[in-house]
Amino acid sequence: MVAIIDYDAGNLKSVENALLHLGEDAEITRDPQKILSADRVILPGVGAFGDAMAKLRGYGLETVIQEVHDRQIPFLGICLGLQLMFEYSDEAPGVTGLGLLPGKITAIPPKSGYKIPHMGWNSLQIREDARLFQGIPQDAYVYFVHSYYLQAAEETDVAAATEYIVRIHAAVERGNTFACQFHPEKSGDIGLQILRNFCRI
């Protein structure tokens, strides 16, 4: 079973629908026992970093996610879910993130001719051995919606990157911990293949 963590952050149903389309058993839940007994766990999300961390802590989910990570249960953060996995974000000064991986979330800098939030399809430069991207061609396009981006502390954690004003770390993986800044559930066949790969790990 794939547990989709419910912390009132939106976008949960579209992730669930994509998994059901792939024939996976998926459930939206904030029940710690269901999350810890799941075969895989997904942390989706759209919204603000500070509010999201407050809700995770309010529901007692921060310690549950830490245990998922410590047990090496395959874990996937999506969009805001990716950002929450890191140490802090410029969007919410003074608020600590989950700290599952080292790195920071910072604002995409303004540039003439570019819109922020970054919204739309961008191509990925994929690391050759990335497990999340098996069978996916170099320069595949996926769908982004974000104003803040990841700067991973360890280049070896970066599974894919994209360019939009700056170089954006678009996906990471370390052990059984994975994350995508883009929305695989909104990225057509490429996104479904990424979710399928995650469900086979």
Task: Give a short synopsis of this structure.
Helix content is 27%, strand content 31%.
Task: Describe what you observe in this structure.
- This protein has 201 residues and is an alpha/beta fold.
- The protein is built from 6 helices and 13 strands.
- The protein has helices at residues 12-21, 32-37, 49-58, 61-70, 80-84, 188-200; strands at residues 2-5, 26-29, 40-43, 75-78, 88-89, 103-107, 118-123, 125-126, 141-146, 148-152, 158-164, 166-174, 177-180.
- An 8-stranded mixed sheet has the order 2-1-3-4-13-12-11-8. A 3-stranded mixed sheet has the order 5-6-10.
- β12 (166-174) and β13 form a beta hairpin.
- The model has no long low-confidence stretch (mean pLDDT 97).
Question: Strand pairing plus helix content: what structural class?
Answer: alpha/beta
How would you write the strand order of the largest sheet?
2-1-3-4-13-12-11-8
Query: How many individual helices?
Result: 6
Principal-axes shape call = globular
Give the termini distance in whole angstroms. Answer: 13 Å
> What is the CATH top level name?
Alpha Beta
Overall mean confidence score, pLDDT? 97
Helicity range: 25-40%
Q: How many distinct folded domains?
A: 1
**Which CATH architecture would you pick?**
3-Layer(aba) Sandwich
Q: How are helices and strands ordered from N to C?
A: EHEHEHHEHEEEEEEEEEH
How many beta-strand elements? Answer: 13
Unreliable stretches covering 5 or more consecutive residues: none
Radius of gyration: 15 Å
Strand content: 25-35%
